[in-house]
Amino acid sequence: MAARRIELMLCTGTGCVAGGAFRIKQALEEEIARHGLPDEVSLVATGCNGFCGQGPLLVALPEKIFYGWLKTEDIPFLVQEHFLKGRPVQKLMFTPPEKKEPIPLLGDIPFFNKQMLLVLRNKGLIDPEKIEDYLARDGYAALEKVLTSMSPEDVIEEITKSGLRGRGGAGFPTGVKWKVCRNELKTPKYVICNCDEGDPGAYMDRSVFESDPHAVIEGQTIAGYAIGAAHGYIYVRSEYPLAIKRMQIALDQAQEYGLLGENILGTGFSFDLEIREGSGAFVCGEETSLIHSIEGKSPEPRQRPPFPAQVGIWGCPTVINNVETLANVPIIVTRGAEWYSQIGTATSKGTKIFSLVGKINNTGLIEVPMGITLREIVYEIGGGIPGNKQFKAVQTGGPSGGCIPNSLIDLPIDYESLKEVGSMMGSGGMIVMDEDTCMVDVSKFFIQFTNDESCGKCTVCRDGSDALLEVLTRITEGQGMSGDMEFLEELGLAIKDGSMCGLGQTLPNPVLSTLKYFRDEYEAHITEKRCPAKVCKNLIAYWIDPQLCQACLICHRECPAESIYGEKQMVHVIDQNKCTKCGTCLDVCPPRFSAVKKLSGEPVPAVERGIKVERKKKPARPEQEKVQV
Amino acid sequence: MAKLTLDELRKKRAEAQKGIYLREGEFRGKIIVHMGTCGIAAGARGIVAAFLEELERSGTKDIMVTTSGCAGLCSKEPMATVEMLNTPPVKYGELTPDKARNIFKEHIVGGTAVAAYALGMGSERGA
Ligand SMILES: Cc1cc2nc3c(=O)[nH]c(=O)nc-3n(C[C@H](O)[C@H](O)[C@H](O)COP(=O)(O)O)c2cc1C
After folding, report:
1. Side-chain half-sphere exposure of A281, counting CA atoms within 13 A
2. Is-contact A7 B23, C-beta < 8 A?
3. What CA–CA distance (Å, rounded) separates A88 from A80?
4. Domains along chain A?
């Protein structure tokens, strides 16, 4: 390939594509051609860069200048100024909220420089649709090493020594699982890659597929060699079209090069992979349901043991691993278990990918060493809470995880510590909540999800989640009764005990953890009929402060329920009987008046219609002008 | 294509590595071609092309070729600055593609600045 002076690594992960990355790509190609630069500047469409909140984005190499929030209109200027004339464009660089100076270099942006990239080592650095790019970054070197110099037992030993644990939720030691399967006498054996990823808000596995599919193929092939399998399945949810497309391209290339198929690299080892698309239900991610789903049966879990490693797909021994688990394997093999096991904590080795979302300045996908504290994630990588609001809690572990309160912000993150505080690692969703989040409402939201997704096979899970939801709904509607909290706790524990699969065993976690850490919020809802975060509609009221209202008529006009009385010069009044609590009045009231208030747990002060406004000291501007605010 | 043997895989990998050196981020030096409107008018694009050709021909991987704005000495364009690690930058003026090739051979590869085309050693720190 010819020498160039600039490479543009344009993110084309799902998030950026939704934001128009392919249109940006086209604009870049056109402008680069227009300036006669194709010999000097090349453009690479990469997988997810991770800083999704800034998308569409690109990184200009070799300097690694980061440009975000790109629009097609920006491209002609950007190409001419930077890529032709060498003057980086400040206004397209990343500027942290509340700062004035942009940070030009990717390596100087806190979101990136606190991360540790092992699984995502190639993210943003390769074209996921080109096997050559993967090869260039030492791709398939681990497979080569395994096939030429290690026995299957050596591989299992190495993975065991590395301390790698499953990233799909439960954290089971990967080497041990492989060994159990290897020791089964029955053949054939299978390896399944679990990319069902059903947690709302989680997209770690999708990103790995989209940015570095060969890393998963290489890891899965090594797993196949270790356990003695000749065939494997990649189970991916059908809602991930881009991930499926890139994985299929990668499989085709690997097969063409003979890195999959018969007699790989002439070593005598044969292994092949095929994609199976998931059937959409959350429970399909549970390993026994997943196996049923591939077998064409109804995706319901079954009792374990026997574990899939003993009796799995088609009744044969089967290793089932999460995407991220498998993507860890090549780097462990190339760099060695000893190196890997130095990263992380005593019981949790390596790194973990999290999707950082919610009330946080920098949303995106991050990979951090195990043992990092929540504080580092929220305040350094995440850049803190928008609008200087108070951090309240972070929800980890997906819909069946728990909420970790502000008081535990220095908690080092690993499998054990999360479990101890009533949450779990799960697949790595991390939802940040601020003072405006109602914890009762949050737990209702998650129970709604798991209640919907319960397959119905176990009575406690099916009917128990119905009952949890009913009580939580009552509490948020102001109908809570004494004894509700104790009931929730008792029922929660019973569901955990009486369910067969992980769904039921973990579904009460959001309720139990919020009852533990935010009990006062439940109490306020139940006894004072007050929602401290002012979220639950039945417990709040909107009210216009007669002393602040300047009769600008905006709320009167915008109210979709037509519930606001308003006339020129007259204090506006909300008719509480008509109000639907949509909050529009609060949103549209000009900040310089801030007359609309949210109340909870107190009587709404009555305001007569027909009171003249009290003008603020500064003479009010003419009516017409105010209207245009 | 035929299935790869181990040797062929290694060869493919080495070949592929040549294509991605800009991503590795280990650079020994930097050639900055000044690309203000004045520079472009005076032929700076041809200078960039000459440097890139030399880079490719020599298989050098740890030198970055970049561009920057006008250097403020429009009469001396096309101009380039060579910054090698741990040595003061050298500014060259009135370049031609042939002079650029010479600079590449003698300064970048050979390690000695070409005094004949040099305008000054050291770059003035901007206020
Ligand atoms: C309801 C439920 C949903 C699950 N969803 C997923 C999933 O989407 N992806 C995943 O890898 N594991 C999921 N799991 C965990 C799998 O059952 C299994 O433990 C995991 O794939 C094993 O891989 P690992 O050892 O590499 O973590 C789920 C479990 C339960 C109970």
Report:
1. 20
2. yes
3. 10
4. 6-109 (3.40.30.10), 131-341 (3.40.50.11540), 351-434 (3.10.20.600), 439-527 (1.20.1440.230), 540-629 (3.30.70.20)
B47-78 confidence digits (pLDDT tens):
999 999 999 888 888 898 988 877 777 788 89
Question: Is the peptide bond prior to A301 cis by the omega test (within 30 degrees of 0)?
Answer: no
Cα distance between residue A201 and residue A449, in whole Å: 12
Helix (H), strand (E) at residue A495: helix A484-498
CA distance A299 to A71: 43
Residues of A at the B interface (Cβ-Cβ below 8 Å)? 1-7, 9, 36, 39-40, 61-64, 84-87, 125-126, 132-133, 135-141, 144, 148, 256-259, 261, 263, 265-267
- Answer for the pair A106, A63: CB distance below 8 angstroms, yes or no: no
Residue A70: name the closest of A145, A113, A16 by CA. Answer: A16
Q: How far apart are CA A238 and CA A258, in angstroms?
A: 27
Chain A residues whose CB is inside 8 A of the B45 CB are 36
Domain positions in chain B are 26-121
Q: pLDDT, tens digit, for every residue of A115-130?
A: 999 999 999 999 999 9
What is the complex's ipTM, to 2 decimals?
Answer: 0.82
- CATH code for the part of the protein at B26-121: 3.40.30.10
Residue A4 Cα to ligand 1 midpoint, Å, equals 44
Q: Whose CA is nearest to atom 25 of ligand 1?
A: A166
Residues of A within 8 A of B55 (CB-CB) are 3
Q: What is the pLDDT of residues A528-553, one digit of tens each?
A: 999 999 999 999 999 999 999 999 99
- Measured at the CA of A400, the angle between CA A191 and CA A300, to 5 degrees, comes to 50
* Alpha helices per DSSP H over A171-286: 174-183, 204-211, 213-227, 241-256
Per-residue pLDDT at A627 exceeds 50:
no
Which residues form the pocket of ligand 1, taking CB atoms under 6 Å from any ligand atom?
Answer: A 166-170, 172, 194, 196-198, 282-283, 285-287, 320-322, 325, 427, 501-503
Q: CA–CA separation, A89 vs A70, rounded Å?
A: 12
Nearest beta carbon to residue B69 from set A2, A86, A265: A86
Residue of A285, A302, A427 lying closest to A353 (CA atoms):
A427
Please state, rounded to an integer, the average pLDDT across all residues of chain A: 94
Residue A624 clears pLDDT 60, i.e. is over it: no
Structural contact between residues A409 and A374, judged by C-beta atoms closer than 8 angstroms: yes
Residue B41: Cβ within 10 Å count? 12
pLDDT tens figures, A450-499: 999 999 999 999 999 999 999 999 999 999 999 999 999 999 999 999 99
User: How buried is residue A344: exposed, middle or buried, by Cβ count under 10 Å (0-12/13-18/19+)?
Assistant: buried
- A-facing residues of B in 42-101 (CB < 8 A) are 45, 48-49, 52-53, 55-56, 64-69
